[in-house]
Automatic annotation (TrEMBL), chain B:
Domain ABC transmembrane type-1: 87-293
Membrane topology: Multi-pass membrane protein
Cited CDD domains: TM_PBP2
Name recorded for this polypeptide: ABC transporter permease subunit
Superkingdom of the source species: Bacteria
Similarity section: Belongs to the binding-protein-dependent transport system permease family. CysTW subfamily.
Organism: Vreelandella zhaodongensis (Halomonas zhaodongensis)
Compartment annotation: Cell membrane
Transmembrane segments: 20-44, 56-76, 82-105, 117-133, 173-193, 272-293
Record's keyword annotation contains Membrane: yes
Length: 276, 303
């Protein structure tokens, strides 16, 4: 057998580094002892306790709703921004727009959170809205930084799309809006789905920005997890972590499966075209 | 023959395109750009016992409008060694973590880009999957591994290699490890995207001309992947400087990082003007890295 190269060894070690800590979490979620680090036998009791914890369940529901609405709005805004940047040529404000699309990708969360909170406080003083902060303010904050990610995903797809399809539709007399909805949108649909999913996970995951802009009305899942984890290791959180890891892995596997199937279909279609 | 699509799009959109552009531009201006102006304004005001807890800069009297700008917050930051130490500590920790990410991530991205085509998607998903789970929970995982009665110490004690647990939790080492672990996928992604576009014939030409593989790497691959290195490093370095969760959970009393200091000024001391000044100085320090990232990103978008 050929000796594996240095980079292959690094790839395997790197993947182990990424996955071992998560496997440890999953493993200890089935531990019957309260001490997370001492193995005392197999048990599912932490899962039962997790589902009895009303505070966590409420926070999950709040987080899911915020993530759903943030992701949906971010896809609309991000797609518009991407379309404008890729298809509109030059216009005044383009540099500003493209800077404001890339900057949120790296902006430290404490800065974004603080600045948005101060904005909301000012708005409340000036126009009386938002009177109290909660889900609506978190929704605005999440939509803003998620739409930057969506714009990056969608614009890279828009650049790959063949312009001739849109051109043909318009030559046949379709107005631009109809062309956009009937030709462009279906072609970039996979990117929209990917952008939506990315925005959804980003919103579900955010602790820092939500902590700044939230009020007493809305407690998201990361806030509950954080206040519990701060006090030390807790087996209930391990059970929650296991469920999250399971869900994400399943979703990723399904995405991979469908991507592979559509790729295989495409290949067969191409072969038939060549033969026929 | 009809006019090319860009012209027709422009003709149709000209009266309307202003509106299409305005929607994302206005949203981002209102909720991303404008807030920085407000942070700047608050950083120039003075703390007060009020709701909200700062003094007004512009005071409108019966016949006068007075503008009171106070630099005391900035002077305060300079005079207290805690803040200077926090900025320096953040930059140092973020730099070391970024370097470690690069040294681990580059070979991984290289191996991924060289892997057979049908493996590449699987490897990419495997690398990205952890980042789609929960950031908080991935940091939390290390608490159980590194603590004094954690997995590593228990194993070493059981094997008889050590007599008393090694202190790993609540150290700078734990913070750096946490940052590397949390941000590694964001280093690999742009590197991989860059390395897959690398023209294989260049490497072949170099080896045909008698260049040894390491020499080829240094003279061909490395310079061509500069864009990916910059993008990946900035995606790790900039957020790491302002990181709050990782130093809070894995760091100890000796870990002073600016994100944590800002959080405490804001939430524990309720000193909004000092927190704002801290944010403005952090933003000023990060301006060059952010500009660097933006330049790479917009070049990437043009291709």
């Amino acid at each position: 057998m050929r000796k594996p190269s240095f980079t292959t060894v690094m790839l395997i070690l790197g993947l182990l580094f990424l996955y071992l800590p998560m496997l440890v979490l999953v493993f200890y979620s089935f531990n019957s002892s309260r001490l997370v680090t001492v193995w005392a036998g197999f048990s599912g009791r932490w899962y039962i306790e997790l589902f009895r914890d009303q505070q966590i369940l409420n926070a999950v529901w709040t987080s899911l709703r915020i993530a759903f609405f943030s992701a949906s709005m971010a896809v609309c805004l991000g797609t518009l921004a991407a379309f404008v940047m890729v298809r509109f040529g030059r216009f005044r404000g383009k540099t500003a727009l493209s800077s404001m699309v890339t900057a949120p990708l790296v902006m430290p969360e404490v800065i974004t959170g603080l600045s948005l909170l101060l904005l909301f406080v000012h708005m409340a003083q000036l126009i009386g809205w938002p009177a109290d902060r909660g889900m609506a303010t978190i929704w605005i904050a999440h939509t803003t930084f998620c739409s930057a990610y969506v714009a990056v995903v969608v614009s890279s797809r828009l650049r790959e799309v063949d312009l001739s399809l849109e051109e043909a539709a318009m030559d046949l007399g379709a107005p631009p809006v109809k062309t956009f909805f009937q030709i462009t949108l279906p072609v970039i649909a996979p990117a929209l789905a990917a952008g939506w999913l990315l925005a959804f996970t980003l919103s579900l995951d955010d602790l820092v920005i939500a902590s700044f802009v939230s009020g007493p009305g809305a407690t998201t899942l990361p806030m509950v997890v954080f206040s519990s984890v701060r006090l030390g290791v807790s087996p209930k959180i391990n059970a929650l972590a296991t469920l999250i890891i399971l869900t994400v892995s399943l979703a990723t596997f399904l995405a991979w499966y469908f991507m592979r199937r559509s790729e295989a279909k495409r290949r067969i279609a191409m072969r038939m075209q060549q033969e026929g | 023959m009809s006019a090319p699509i860009s012209q027709r799009l422009q003709r149709w959109f000209r009266p309307r395109r202003g509106w299409v552009i305005a929607v994302p531009l206005l949203w981002l201006t209102l909720f991303f750009l404008l807030p920085f102006g407000i942070v700047l304004k608050i950083s120039l005001s003075e703390a007060a016992i009020a709701i909200p807890p700062y003094s007004a800069i512009v005071n409108v009297g019966a016949e006068t409008v007075s503008l009171v700008v106070s630099f005391s917050n900035y002077l305060f930051l300079m005079s207290d060694s805690l803040y200077v130490a926090a900025y320096w500590g953040s930059l140092k920790i973020a730099f070391v973590a970024t370097l470690a990410c690069l040294l681990i991530g580059y070979p991984m991205a290289y191996a991924m880009a060289r892997a057979p085509a049908h493996w590449q998607l699987v490897l990419l998903l495997l690398v990205m999957l952890p980042s789609w789970t929960s950031f908080l929970i991935r940091v939390y995982a290390w608490m159980g591994i590194l603590s004094n009665n954690g997995l590593i110490n228990n194993t070493l004690l059981w094997l008889g290699l050590i007599d008393s647990p090694i202190r790993m939790m609540n150290t700078n080492f734990a913070v750096i490890l946490g940052i590397v672990y949390a941000y590694l996928p964001f280093m690999i992604l742009p590197l991989y995207a860059n390395l897959t576009r690398l023209d294989g014939s260049l490497l072949e030409a170099a080896s045909d001309l008698g260049s040894r593989s390491f020499n080829t790497f240094l003279k061909v691959t490395l310079p061509l992947s500069k864009g990916g290195i910059i993008a990946g490093s900035m995606l790790v370095f900039i957020p790491a400087v302002g990181e709050y969760v990782i130093p809070e959970l894995l760091g100890g009393p000796n870990t002073v990082m600016i994100g944590k200091v800002l959080w405490e000024e804001f939430f524990n001391n309720r000193d909004w003007p000092v927190a704002s000044a801290l944010a403005m100085v952090m933003l000023a320090l990060l301006l060059i890295p952010i500009a660097l990232f933006h330049r790479y990103q917009s070049r990437e978008l043009k291709e």
